[in-house]
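Section 3.1: Structural characterization of target chains.
Under the original work plan, the team committed to producing a structural model for every single-chain target entering the pipeline before any wet-lab resources were allocated. The record below documents one such target. The sequence was received from the expression subgroup and is listed exactly as submitted; it comprises 226 residues.
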Amino acid sequence: MFSLKSYFKHSSVTILYGIFAVIIVGLSACQSPQQTAPQAPTNVPSTPSQSQANPPVTTPANLPSASADWKADGSITPGEYQNHQAFDDYEINWSNDDQYVYIGMKAKTMGWVAVGFGATTFMNNANIIQGYFSDGKVTVADQFSTGNFGPHNDVTSLGGTYAILDSGGSQTNGTTIIEFKRKLNPGDKFHPALVKGVNKIIWAYGGDNQYLIKHVSRGEGQITIQ
């Protein structure tokens, strides 16, 4: 049996449910939208690698040694030789590569100038290169000493082979310059090899171009082959 009381009771419950549903929908609508990670732009160039950002430095090829500018012209110019050693009024300049030694001797004299390699006792067993002038022309003799104080005869007279590959010289204003090129190791008993490191030398010069005249100054020293 329908009654007003029951009707109002039922209507109140329905209204309450309706109000509750509206509240639920409203709360759902007020929630923040879901956050999504932003997408990286596709047209931005990638960061270069370390090797791309800092390209390797190109090192130029090794410069030629001083021997590349060497000329046996009787003139010792700056940079022509890699090394220099002075002994009183005598000086020796030299360069070398893997095969050859380039020598420039200079002395305050208008006479002969000489250097010796490989001496054992005094002059004995030394290959002596002696430069002198005759009638304005330079001669560079390739000699070998067979005794403590000579004689030092031309190697060809002893059965050897002349080993000076290029030579020249000059005499001006009281100074003599002799230049020559020789193999580091000519390969015979008359030409002691010049080896890497320190090599003993003997040196001398005379007061006259008569190359058999005794020296006016002499000594010993060393050169370093690189």
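Helices lie at 4-30, 50-53.
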